[in-house]
Amino acid sequence: MPKVMFIIVALVLMAGATRAREDDSDAFQVHMVVWRGCEEACKSFTHYFKSRKLPVNVIVTDVAKDKSLLPEVKQLLLKERPDLVVTWGTSVTRSLIGTIADYGIGSGLGDIPSLFMIVADPVRAGIIVDHETSGRPLVTGVHNRVNETVQLKHIFEYQPIKHLAVINEPNAVNSHQNTQKLAALSDQLGFEVISLEYSLGADERADPAEIPLKIAEAKALGADALYVGSSSFNLENRQSYTEAAISENLPVFSAYEQMVRDGLALMSVSNSYKNVGKLAASQAYEILFKAKSPGALSIRALERFSVLVNMQAAKRLSLYPPLSIISIAKIVK
What pLDDT digit, counting tens, does each position of 172-215 carry? Predict the structure, then answer.
């Protein structure tokens, strides 16, 4: 999204927020900043308050994966001073709230309370102290990714793998952290990580046309399977990614259920974004309606995860799930 267009959209949203407060002075103002549109978690968050008829106005600003807009968004938030800022994704959260290395126990948003979601590993990202507490009085949130060890256990139960390939954008923080975690587990679990990166254009973005080329490269390097654990780019291009993988006879395992539901990934071990958004909204409720300090709230995570298997992909790959997986999985036909 061009910068001028973003400014116009942002100002229109700010004006809407001002009118809402004048019409209903008791309504809380929540501003959510998202990385790639208002998807399931964002919609679930807003639905939580709407369905309960709670006086909360949720403004959503989408930076459309353009990091250069985030400093400007930050200044708008500091000027607007909403009752709560919700950040979607690691890049947005690190840019707006900042890391502990940047601000210590403080926040890049000053004294504005904030809550993050869809941050796969907030500890490794430097956003919080540990998975129990943020260690920052005005920061809390939820993390969404199923533990990598749990994911790999189910992947290897489906198919023994010696060489697992990941393909990511070189500027994606979450992706690198996820790959590092896989590498740290590789000796323990007896597999090798093949790590490849897309090229970036002048706009600092990868080209979807490179997907089949990189997957073919992974195959040539001996990959037995592909893994998509934390990659907005691969998720956004899930149909072309999974089709290219199947053309190379490579199964795709993922931490995103959308890769299975809307693509041809073989299996996902994941948390539902819808449930993550609902959980984040319950945290926001505590802050807004019970006057809880964000830092006093524990970092939340969903207690259950889902295993999805795409039977169309299984048929095309001739890799049918074992009974142990069938017994716990949801089947997508």
Answer: 888 888 899 999 999 999 999 999 999 999 888 899 999 999 99
Residue 333 to residues 16, 166, 173, 297: CA-CA distances in angstroms? Answer: 43, 26, 33, 40
- Number of Cβ within 10 Å of residue 298's Cβ equals 12
Tokens representing 325 are 């997986």
The CA R_g of the chain, rounded to the nearest whole Å, is 20
Strands 330-332, 267-270: pairing kind: unpaired
Tens of pLDDT, residues 19-32: 333 445 689 999 99
Ordered strands of the 28-34 beta sheet: 56-62, 28-34, 84-88, 114-119, 139-143
3-state SS track over the chain? CCHHHHHHHHHHHHHHHHHHHHHCCCCEEEEEEECCCCCHHHHHHHHHHHHCCCCEEEEEEECCCCHHHHHHHHHHHHHHCCCEEEEECHHHHHHHCCCHHHHCCCCCCCCCCEEEEEECCCCCCCCCCCCCCCCCCCEEEEECCCCHHHHHHHHHHHCCCCEEEEEECCCCHHHHHHHHHHHHHHHHHCCEEEEEECCECCCCCECHHHHHHHHHHHHHCCCCEEEECCCHHHHHCHHHHHHHHHHCCCCEEECCCHHHHCCCCCEEEECCHHHHHHHHHHHHHHHHHCCCCHHHCCCECCCCCEEEEEHHHHHHHCCCCCHHHHCCCEEEC
14-18, 25-29, 217-221, 256-260: range with lowest mean pLDDT: 14-18
Instruction: Express each pLDDT in 78-130 by its tens digit.
Output: 999 999 999 999 999 999 999 999 999 999 999 999 999 999 889 989 999 99
CA–CA gap between residue 333 and residue 306 (Å, rounded): 16
pTM of structure = 0.79
CB 155 within 8 A of CB 267: yes
Interacting residues of 171 by C-beta distance below 8 A, sequence separation 6+: 200, 204
